[in-house]
């Protein structure tokens, strides 16, 4: 943006006059950087230079406010722009609806949608997808299905993003029958599922303890050359460890590493927690050493899990050694750590849930 502004200054110095397009690009740029003050400063500079904002400019401001999390201000701004002759379009309303959805204010997104329809502006695929996404996140699956039916009535074709939102919603409420129905439908209409969609299905099946179905979707990913990512492997490994299938989990972990996918702290948490729950404390310690090798600082949760595991095994010396190692690494033990050290207990599942 500094470079863009210096070009703008060169334009002014050379006696040329920037036009509405020049200013609008700069306004958009500042909003993208999260600098709404300079974006509005540029808007005021444009108006002061007697350059009338275009609909493109007005939309850039509305969209920009939504990007920087100031969606609540868009209503007054829109009313102000209407007085200046601005004619809103689906682009305008889509920005506001999406902004409210991202803030979790799905009721306000719905009221904006109604206002849009009452203004005679037809919703498009982007509008409906945003709403389906917001409604599914809020567990309002019935309303999301109603929006799906609105799309059908209007002749709007569901795209992969719309199906992903709907399927993820069904997975989150553990309605895997509904999720499978829409997964089959998207295949029938010729759409190709991506990693995000497969991850939703895998996560959904893991959450209902159906590892067989989860692993079958993993196989489909490989068969269809859809890249498995860190989320795919973390979800599957977590599910397998909970069922005590350590060998399968280990094979998947090796497969993941062979693809050059680097584990993150969350996956290491899953591994240590799963191994310790199965009494595999030594393997859990190996994971701790692996983290050191990858220059990843273990979390307090990981140490708590290992300390608790050693307490269960009656190996108090190793438990206190791990406590000292925590301190050496600059980690601050929490209440759970001291509860283990004093009372020798830890509810692993609760600690994991809190993390």
TrEMBL record:
SUPFAM superfamilies: HCP-like. This is Pentatricopeptide repeat-containing protein. InterPro entries: PPR_rpt, TPR-like_helical_dom_sf. It holds the Pfam family PPR_2. Keywords: Repeat. PPR repeats lie at residues 19-53, 54-88, 89-123, 124-158, 159-193, 194-228, 229-263, 264-298, 299-333. It comes from Stylosanthes scabra. PANTHER family: OS03G0856100 PROTEIN, TETRATRICOPEPTIDE-LIKE HELICAL DOMAIN SUPERFAMILY. Signal peptide: none annotated. Belongs to the PPR family. P subfamily.
